[in-house]
Amino acid sequence: MTFTRFIDLSGPDIERFGEDTVAVLPVGAIEQHGPHLPVATDYYMAEAVAEGAARTAGETCDITLLPGLAYTKSDEHAWSAGTLWLSASTLLSVLDDLGRSLAAGPVRRLAFLNAHGGNSALLGVALRELRTRHGLRTFLLHASLPADQGGTSPATEQGLGVHGGLKETAAMLHLHPDLVDMTQARRSVPEHLTQYEHIGFGKSVSFGWTSDDFATGTGVIGDPTGATPELGRKLVDASITAAAAALRECARFLPHRSTTA
C-alpha cells in the first residue's frame, strides 16, 4: 500500500498502478477572499487537505496525488481584481480531457478533493460525464462543506458564513499565517437574509448570487474576526481525517456488490 505523487513518477511506474489505485485531484480556486486573505486561499486548502488525506489513506491503500487545479469556476467573484476563472464549459472540458488522459492508462478511480463551493455543482456533473465517457469510477470529496451546501457556520455568522469567514481564515492562519492580515479582517454577515423563510443559504430554495450582491463592501460573507491558528489546526486536521477515511472507501467502492467479507 503506497502514497505517491503522480508527477514524480515515470511512465513505467504509472503503468504499474492497480485497478484500485485512487488518483486524487485537488480542486481549488484563485479568487478574492476579502482584504485579509490571499486569492489562493481555496487552492492552499485543497492542496493541504488532499495531500494530508492521501498520505494517511496511503498507509492502507494505493493513492496517487495529482497536481492541483487552481483555475476553476469563480465567476461569482469576477467583479474583483485577482479572480482568475474559467467558464463552466471550459472547466468541464478540462476535467473531461484530464479524465480521458488518465483512463488511457491504468487509472480507474478518480477523486476530486474540492475546496471551493462554486465548483460543487459542476464537479457533480463531471462525475457522471467521466463515468459514462471514460469508464472511470469518480468521487467528489470536500475539504469543508460551506453553509449553503449543507455545512455549518458558527453562531456569530448566523449560518451565513460561506466565504472568507471564520473557518477559512482560521485554516489559513494555521497553514500560511504569513499571508493573513488580521488587521484587515471585518465582520460582513448579510443578516437581512434571515428574514426569508424559504430562500437562503442551506434553506429549501437556493438562489444565484455573486459576492458583491450583499452590500457588505468587502467581498467577505462571514465573520473572520474570531479566527485563531489553534482553531485552524483543528479544522484542517479534522478535514484530513475525514477525507482519508473517504479515500479508503473510494479504493474499494463497487456499487453493484458488497466488498465486505
TrEMBL record:
InterPro entries: Creatininase-like_sf, Creatininase/forma_Hydrolase. It holds the Pfam family Creatininase. Its cofactor is Zn(2+). Keywords: Hydrolase, Metal-binding, Zinc. It comes from the Bacteria. PANTHER family: 2-AMINO-5-FORMYLAMINO-6-RIBOSYLAMINOPYRIMIDIN-4(3H)-ONE 5'-MONOPHOSPHATE DEFORMYLASE, 3-DEHYDRO-SCYLLO-INOSOSE HYDROLASE. Belongs to the creatininase superfamily. This is Creatininase family protein.
